[in-house]
Amino acid sequence: MLLVLRLVLVPLLIAAVTLAARGWGPRVGAFVTALPAVAGPTLAFYAVQQGASFAADAARGSLLGLVGVAAFCLAYGHASRRLHWSLCLLIGWMSFASLTIVTYRVHVGPIAAFVMAVASLLVARALLPSSPSSRSER
């Protein structure tokens, strides 16, 4: 039963995010994506199947994984200004992988992992290049 729920719930949540973005625009889609709609249920499944300690470690790892996501976004965003998307994707993946390898060896508590995740996302947002539409509005 738990396996069926996992196989159905995550795709439904991803479909909901896609529909929200199509219906109300990319800002709403990004907001819905940022909600723990996918990671939350996954971590709950871990807690049921593997125990609270395993789920807590997975949650901490998920937070630290956001550092790699921020690196991907920053690398892809800057590369996309002058390179083909496929090369940008490769550069983004390499940035993600590099930072994920570094953060894999970091052993911090959940509060520090949260602070690192939020800080990396804020820094990435501040350093992203502006979009062509926002440059023309200035």
Q: Which ranges are low-confidence, i.e. pLDDT below 50, for 5 or more consecutive residues?
A: none
- The DSSP helix count reads 7
Distance between the termini: 54 Å
Amount of beta strand:
under 5%
Shape: globular
Helix content: over 70%
Order of SSEs: HHHHHHH
Give a brief description:
It is built from 7 helices and no strands.
What does the model show?
The protein is an all-alpha fold. Helices cover 84% and strands 0% of the residues. It has 7 helices and no strands. The protein has helices at 2-24, 26-34, 39-50, 52-79, 85-104, 110-127, 132-137. The N and C termini lie far apart (54 Å). The mean pLDDT is 85.
Give the helices and strands, then pairings:
Blueprint: H1 2-24, H2 26-34, H3 39-50, H4 52-79, H5 85-104, H6 110-127, H7 132-137
List keywords for this structure.
7 helices, globular, 138 residues, 0% strand, mainly alpha
